[in-house]
Design goal:
Elements lengths: L11 H12 L1 H13 L2 H8 L6 H7 L4 H13 L3 E4 L2 E4 L1 H8 L1 H14 L6 H7 L23 H26 L6 E5 L5 H9 L4 E6 L1 H13 L6 E5 L15 E5 L7 H14 L5 E6 L8 H18 L8 H10 L2 E10 L3 E8 L2
Parallel strand pairs: 3-4, 3-6, 4-5, 6-7
Antiparallel strand pairs: 1-2, 7-9, 8-9
Helix pairs in contact: 2-5, 4-5, 7-9, 9-10, 12-14
Bound molecules: S-adenosylmethionine (SAM).
S-adenosylmethionine binds next to helix 9.
C-alpha cells in the first residue's frame, strides 16, 4: 500500500474547499442522481454542445427551467459540466458519472439501500446495531430478509454484490480448478452465481451451497433454469449459530465476499467450524476485498466506504477488513495460508488455506 502513509500534500486553501465538499456531499450526491435520472447528462452528451442552453435542456428533459437551473449550476460546481457560450458541455467527471458502470452501480446501491439509513450511522456505531435497517423493517440484520427488500433496494443490492464478484469469478475459475475438486462447498453462495460458473467450467463438479433459506430458494431455482439442478444442491444453515449443521468432507470450501458480513468473533467461530468439517486435504478459498490490498487509492476509498453499509444497514458489527486482521483469524482457527494472490478482478484477494498439520 503506497497511500495513506503520509499527510496529504495539499494547500490550506484547497483543503478548506475539500472540507466544504464533504459538508455538502449529500447535496452533490443527490444532484448527480437527478442529473442522471432526468437524462440531463445523457442529453448533454448526445447534443455535443448544440441546443444545450438551460431552456433547451429544461424542455428536452421535461423539467422546469428552475429545476434545470439549480441542477446545472451545481453540476458546474461539481465538475460534471462546463459552459461554453451559454451551452452546457459534459466534462470528464460527468462522462464517468454517465458512462462508468461501477459509478452507476455504486450510486444506485447508496441511494436505494443506504442513503436513508445512513442518517442513523451515529446510533449504529454507538449501539453496534444496524439502526438504519429500520427504514426497511424491524430486522436485526439484512441477510435473512434480503429477498423481502423493496424492489429497487433489492435490485441495487444484488447488482452491487454481483458486479464485484462477477469480475473476480471469471479470472478465478482456472485457479480454483487447479487441483480438480469434485465437490465444492460454496458458503454464503447467495443466488448461485459461483455455483453456476463452476458447473459451467467443469462438467463433473458438484456444488453444495450453504446459505440461509431465502437465498437457497433463489439459488436452486436458478440452477434448475440452467439445467444443472442435479449438480447444485442447497444446505440450509445459519452460521451465526455455533451449532448450525455444516457440510462435512468437501474437497474445496469457498467463501466469496462472505466473511465481511461478520464480526471478528463471528468470523473466528465460522472458520473454526469450517476447519472442523474439512478433511486433512480439503482447501478453503477465501475471496475478499481488503482496503490495504487495493492497487489504487480509488479502490481503498470504495472499500472503506462500503464498511459503513455494514455498520448502518447490514448488521452493525462487520466491515471490509484489513488483510492482517483476517490473516490473524485464519491462523487462530487452525488454518494456514498456502497461496495469497492480490489484484484479482476489481481489487480482490484470494487466500488459499489448508489445515495446519
Ligand atoms: C455478500 S453475500 C455474498 C454472495 C456471494 N458469495 C458473492 O460472492 O457474490 C453474503 C451471503 O452470505 C449469506 N449469509 C449472511 N449471513 C449468513 C448466516 N448467518 N448464515 C448463512 N449464510 C449467511 C447471505 O445470505 C448472502 O448470500
Amino acid at each position: 500500500m503506497t497511500f495513506y502513509q503520509n499527510p496529504k500534500s495539499i494547500k490550506a486553501f484547497d483543503a478548506k474547499f475539500e472540507a466544504q465538499k464533504i459538508a455538502f456531499a449529500p447535496v452533490a450526491f443527490q444532484v448527480a442522481r437527478c442529473l442522471l435520472k432526468f437524462n440531463i447528462l445523457a442529453y448533454i452528451d448526445k447534443a455535443k454542445g448544440e441546443n444545450c442552453s438551460r431552456s433547451d435542456i429544461a424542455s428536452q428533459c421535461n423539467i422546469s427551467e428552475y429545476a434545470a437551473g439549480v441542477l446545472l449550476d451545481m453540476g458546474l460546481s461539481m465538475g460534471l459540466l462546463w459552459l461554453k457560450d451559454e451551452q452546457y458541455q459534459l466534462d470528464k467527471i460527468g462522462d464517468f458519472m454517465l458512462n462508468d458502470e461501477m459509478a452507476k452501480i455504486n450510486l444506485n446501491f447508496i441511494h436505494d439501500v443506504c442513503y436513508q439509513g445512513l442518517y442513523d450511522l451515529d446510533a449504529s456505531l454507538l449501539e453496534g446495531k444496524a439502526k438504519g435497517l429500520k427504514v426497511f423493517g424491524d430486522w436485526e440484520t439484512i441477510y435473512p430478509t434480503l429477498s423481502e427488500l423493496p424492489l429497487e433496494a433489492k435490485k441495487s443490492w444484488f447488482e452491487f454484490d454481483h458486479f464485484y464478484s462477477d469480475f473476480a469469478f471469471e479470472a478465478l475459475l482456472p485457479l480454483i480448478f487447479q487441483h480438480q475438486p469434485k465437490t465444492i462447498v460454496d458458503i454464503g453462495g447467495n443466488t448461485g452465481k459461483w455455483a453456476l460458473a463452476c458447473t459451467g467450467f467443469d462438467n463433473k463438479v458438484k456444488v453444495t451451497i450453504m446459505d440461509l433459506p431465502g437465498q437457497l430458494r433463489v439459488a436452486l431455482a436458478n440452477a434448475k433454469t440452467q439445467g444443472v439442478a442435479d449438480r447444485v444442491s442447497g444446505f440450509e444453515c445459519n452460521l451465526l449459530d455455533e451449532n448450525t449443521p455444516f457440510y462435512s468432507g468437501g474437497d474445496l470450501y469457498w467463501m466469496s465476499q462472505f466473511l465481511d458480513c461478520f464480526s471478528e468473533q463471528e468470523i473466528l467461530t465460522i472458520l473454526k467450524n469450517t476447519a472442523a468439517n474439512m478433511r486433512p486435504d480439503s482447501e478453503l478459498c477465501i475471496l475478499e476485498t481488503y482496503w490495504d490490498r487495493q492497487p489504487f487509492e480509488a479502490g481503498a476509498y470504495c472499500v472503506n466506504a462500503t464498511s459503513l453499509y455494514f455498520t448502518a444497514m447490514a448488521n452493525g458489527n462487520s466491515r471490509m477488513y484489513h488483510s492482517k486482521d483476517m490473516l490473524k483469524l485464519i491462523s487462530k482457527a487452525g488454518l494456514f495460508v498456502d497461496q495469497d494472490i492480490d489484484n484479482i478482478g476489481l481489487g480482490h484477494t484470494l487466500l488459499r488455506c489448508k489445515l495446519k498439520p
